[in-house]
């Protein structure tokens, strides 16, 4: 047992070494691109790992071996032109994100550079032929993500801004829109308020969308909230994440391998919702479906599963330390905020009191209601308005938990959120007093938490308790 770390350490060195050997071998026998010796060595490496019998280490070793075998298979699928037909960007992204610590070393390996050059050729051809064959957003998004993964800026692809091309036509399909947004955010590009609202709208109506669409939307939003200016949107992610987690099926999966892989990525590191689903069952669902040769059907799906199982999902690319970004201060995400008002108000530098209304509704059919009118200095947070309302009227009594990014209101007027029954309090900011006969649409859900919502003259707030 004591020797186990040594064995693992040694075998990792051996693995790295065998890749160097393989590289030279490939270079000296240029007529044989598809090399089989590497597979043999990877297998030997896995055998070595499997000889260890420490039960506490076993799970991690087995998990990594599934990924290692998938990656080894992907390498065998490389074409003579160093690409992977339609899947070059996706496979390259998977290879670049793994192994974790050596991601950048990988990029320096000559083979990877040849594949990257092949990918650049593919992009140039795509741009060159776009009059004959229109560029589809998912295709371009894939290339943008792969460039970001390789520490290249897709906004400066040989003088061409691929992100601008990507965002030029907003995709109609929600999943394509979410994927394009993820690619733009990953490239640290300008994410418009309008875009974020559409994503929040999809997330807030998760039940009306396919699992893959919701998972992709959450991936995009989780990338967006990494920007310190949008951190407060974190609040809006919890409910859609829970809703997604609860769609897990008896077999541990989410319907199919693709959906399950995307969901694992979307919910990566979300430990606070662990009791809504079983992450290891989802992993087992995928692992038990690996082909004997290491593949998961095709390179496209295999790459997606590598993202999911290696704990290095697509959302991780933004965090790659490419030596360019010191921190998230240095980016191009829009500054003017979601915390600003949604519609035009008076003179911003005018210091005065403003009057707002604050309404509570209970139930989808509004079986209980209460409204209060309050005056407070401009720029007060809605959280302070809630406190003033509670002092003035006991019906507005509330309880909130404190999170690093602010308060999360879970109980109002004696009604506590019940995630198990999908009962939640949703906060809306409206241009007029809400009317139960014309209830507000989802896009009016406040885009930020109660602390960041600053009141303006003419605002009407509604907290609505309902089943999602
Ligand atoms: C990869 O798989 C996804 C999901 O099935 C599909 O939408 C996409 O078109 C595939 N990509 C390619 C290049 O085949
Ligand atoms: C989660 O799934 C795994 C494997 O399917 C199972 O062994 C475990 O008991 C499950 N955990 C819970 C809390 O249900
Ligand atoms: C806003 O108010 C300030 C001070 O009251 C005034 O100087 C400024 O001209 C006003 N701006 C507009 C656009 O009305
Ligand atoms: C409102 O608050 C913001 C940020 O806290 C500040 O920049 C702005 O000047 C304030 N406006 C007024 C009218 O106090
Ligand atoms: C704003 O309201 C407070 C009391 O709520 C009052 O003391 C203050 O004079 C008001 N300020 C203005 C400019 O009306
Ligand atoms: C709400 O009202 C509709 C019809 O007005 C009714 O069908 C539905 O059952 C009601 N829902 C609840 C939760 O009372
Ligand atoms: C609010 O509830 C009261 C009864 O408490 C009812 O008379 C009133 O019509 C309700 N108002 C709205 C807007 O639903």
UniProtKB/TrEMBL annotation:
InterPro entries membership: Cbl-bd_prot (IPR002157), Cobalamin_Transport (IPR051588), Terpenoid_cyclase/PrenylTrfase (IPR008930)
Subcellular location: Secreted
Coiled-coil region list: none
Main location: secreted
Keyword Methyltransferase: no
Signal sequence region: 1-18
One CC-aspect GO term: extracellular space
The protein's name in its UniProt record: Uncharacterized protein
Biological source species: Phaedon cochleariae (Mustard beetle)
């Amino acid at each position: 047992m004591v020797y186990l770390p040594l064995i693992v350490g040694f075998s990792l060195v051996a693995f790295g070494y065998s890749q160097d050997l393989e590289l030279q071998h490939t270079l000296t026998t240029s007529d044989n691109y598809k090399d089989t010796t590497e597979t043999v060595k990877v297998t030997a490496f896995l055998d070595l790992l499997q000889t260890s019998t420490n039960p506490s280490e076993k799970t991690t070793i087995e998990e990594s071996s599934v990924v290692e075998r998938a990656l080894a298979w992907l390498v065998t699928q490389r074409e003579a032109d160093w690409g992977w037909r339609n899947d070059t960007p996706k496979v390259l992204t998977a290879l670049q994100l793994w192994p974790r610590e050596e991601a950048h070393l990988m990029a320096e390996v000559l083979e990877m550079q040849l594949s990257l050059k092949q990918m650049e050729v593919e992009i140039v051809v795509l741009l060159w032929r776009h009059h004959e064959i229109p560029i589809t957003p998912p295709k371009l998004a894939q290339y943008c993500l792969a460039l970001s993964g390789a520490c290249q800026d897709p906004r400066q692809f040989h003088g061409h801004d691929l992100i601008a091309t990507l965002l030029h036509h907003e995709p109609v399909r929600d999943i394509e829109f979410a994927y394009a947004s993820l690619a733009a955010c990953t490239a640290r590009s300008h994410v418009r308020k309008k875009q974020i609202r559409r994503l929040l709208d999809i997330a807030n109506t998760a039940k009306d969308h396919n699992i893959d669409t919701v998972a992709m939307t959450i991936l995009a939003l989780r990338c967006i909230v990494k920007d310190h200016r949008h951190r407060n949107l974190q609040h809006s992610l919890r409910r859609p994440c829970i809703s997604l987690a609860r769609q897990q099926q008896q077999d541990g999966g989410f319907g199919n391998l693709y959906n399950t892989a995307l969901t694992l990525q979307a919910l990566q590191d979300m430990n606070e919702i662990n009791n809504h689903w079983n992450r290891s069952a989802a992993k087992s669902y995928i692992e038990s479906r690996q082909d004997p040769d290491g593949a998961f059907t095709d390179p496209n799906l295999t790459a997606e599963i590598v993202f999911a199982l290696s704990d290095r999902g697509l959302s991780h690319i933004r965090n790659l330390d490419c030596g360019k970004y010191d921190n998230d201060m240095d980016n191009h995400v829009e500054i003017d905020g979601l915390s600003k008002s949604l519609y035009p108000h008076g003179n911003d530098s005018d210091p005065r009191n403003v009057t707002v209304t604050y309404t509570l509704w209970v139930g989808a059919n509004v079986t209980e209601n209460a409204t209060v009118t309050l005056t407070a200095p401009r720029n007060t947070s809605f959280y302070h308005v809630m406190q003033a309302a509670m002092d003035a009227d006991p019906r507005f009594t509330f309880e909130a938990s404190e999170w690093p990014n602010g308060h999360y209101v879970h109980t109002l007027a004696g009604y506590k959120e019940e995630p198990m029954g999908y009962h939640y309090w949703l906060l809306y900011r409206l241009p007029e007093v809400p009317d139960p006969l014309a209830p507000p649409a989802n896009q009016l859900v406040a885009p930020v938490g109660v602390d960041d919502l600053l009141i303006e003259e003419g605002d009407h707030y509604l907290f609505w308790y309902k089943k999602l």
